[in-house]
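To the team - calcium ion complex, inputs and output below.
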Amino acid sequence: RILQTVAERLRKAAGGTGLAARFGGDEFAVLITHRPDREAVELVCRQIVEAFAERVEIDGRAFSVTVSVGVALAPWDGGSVDELLRHADMALYQTKSEGRNGFRFYSREISASIEERRQLESDLHEAFAAGCLELHYQPLVDVDSNAIVGVEALMRWNHPERGWVSPAVFIPIAETCGLIVPMGKWLLETACAQAALWPGVTLAVNVSPAQFRDGDFARFVGETLESTGLAPSRLELEITEGMLLDESHKPLETLQALKAHGVRIAMDDFGTGYSSLGYLRSFPFDKIKIDRSFVGILETDPNAAAIVRSVVALGRSLGMVTTAEGVETREQLAFLADERCDQAQGYYLARPQDPLRLTALLGT
Ligand code: C2E
Ligand code: CA
Ligand code: CA
Ligand code: CA
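Output:
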């Protein structure tokens, strides 16, 4: 029913200039034959995107639909229907990766960036299979005592030609190709086994959306704690707000199941998402991690200082631990101490490092 309604609206938006047909799945093809110039095509694209700004209503229920459009122009972008479709699809993919609700024209750069990503994806598969991914650990420090009270596990990939590739680049790739699930399992097992040798500190592990959506996640966490012997209360799973928004699975139930195992739940990147306060009310998080984008401008932006101050107060009144990430200066740390923020993490205190160096740092 939704697809039918979408098709009707699409046809209207294409304004009779084109032929709109279901192309498979949730994809539609619009063929514009009598207006070959770029400006006119751009106009049609705009109309299509705008047409879905309003929600689609079916049986009294409203659905929001996002539209991503990719365009290929004949004869420039392809000599055959196949090639045109393939290039339009690449442009579509580009629109999606740029955040949806828009359109892109195919270009050689798009083709090159997709090729590069494909290469990176296959290198990542290889690296994971060959055991070339590493885990580094960054200390979390108690603001009052300066003692290391926890570590966050962060994935590292030393690419044979590119050198260190940022997890901000390869985690999203692993996420879309499904590799994140086996990778996340390896990560959790390795990190838990490692942390079991570091008594006295909590272990924070980032959970990706695909892992969290996986129906088996809570059970796997339970099994890993058992097999590695790490006390559940020492494991802290970091999740982000966006993951709670995805109602296609039951995020709160997954969180409850995890809590039932005795692990702690931290809200990561706090302040960068949508409706943080509502989530804090609907689920008892153990910790709030204040995003480094606020911490980084503490000295220069009075608004950031006010926000950090209120989040710390909020955390305290809700009985949640507050951690500030991205602490890079002595001044930032002093501010956090004044505001009685519980923990700090950042280059000023310690960089992420390999397990050997961290073992030395912990003096165990
Ligand atoms: P995040 O969870 O917010 O992790 C903290 C990031 O901040 C890390 O970047 C860390 O190296 C960096 N950082 C720490 N202190 C400072 C500082 O003082 N200044 C600045 N500018 N940065 C600092 P990293 O390791 O590059 O990771 C980036 C993101 O990739 C992470 O953000 C996390 O979302 C994701 N990620 C990393 N490892 C994993 C993993 O094993 N699993 C999953 N699912 N995601 C991961
Ligand atoms: Ca994190
Ligand atoms: Ca974070
Ligand atoms: Ca972050």
